[in-house]
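Re: the 270-residue chain
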Amino acid sequence: MAQRRSIFITGGGSGIGRAIAQRFAREGWFVGLGDVDAKGVEETEALLPGGFSYAHIFDVRERDAWDVALKTFALACGGRIDVVANNAGVPLGGPLSELAREEIDCTLDVNLRGAIYGAQAAYPWLKQAAPGSCLLNTASAAALYGVANQSIYGVTKAGLRSLTETLDGEWAADGIRVRSLMPSFVDTPLLSHAPNAKHGAPIREMVTRAGLEFTPVEDVAEAAWQAVHGDRLHWVIGKTARRLRFMAKWMPGKLRQRAGRLAEAEEELE
């Protein structure tokens, strides 16, 4: 009997991570949930079939913690890790001039440094499970073109795009796929947060005021499933993301004119 395939997902306590966990569990995969939010992870586990999951509470910013998380997950799932999903992330928006150093450092550390640590820790496990294993990075449409008031967040997601391309080249000989998800604004609890400590209005209100659509989280989870099994490197998800990709390539001048819509919406809400 073939061993059940497994996936370890950071940020598994809510949003995209939870939806990915549910999507893979429906296909019979063993699911590992990594997060700092113990309550959120418990809620996700309650939505999965019994015996199909394992939870590990840890901080992706700690390199040694990654090794412990993957080792204990491997013990739980039978020794084989087929997919590691670098999904943990925090939002940050607003003019660079008003962002606190602590906000900048946290966003860089969670969104980018944590994903780099995750890739490094995942490599031996994915190599062991190859061919067909995969590192899946949750980037963003923010990686496609720099938009006003998304400087640090955009930097982290552009970094994940670059990391995906680089590691896809490095690890191809080992039979490991490396893929990225690039959704536009996804309807998750993160949109209820303010973009930064100086701004009280939630991100959701700014997106609505700017006239942009919300991408269903289930669409991102489906793209994750397809990405793990497909040949495409970057998976652009949602109308806004696809429009941004098109305009960045063919209409950069017009895109520059429209790139300030979110900034204007934020100013109106202040």
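The chain has a mean pLDDT of 87.
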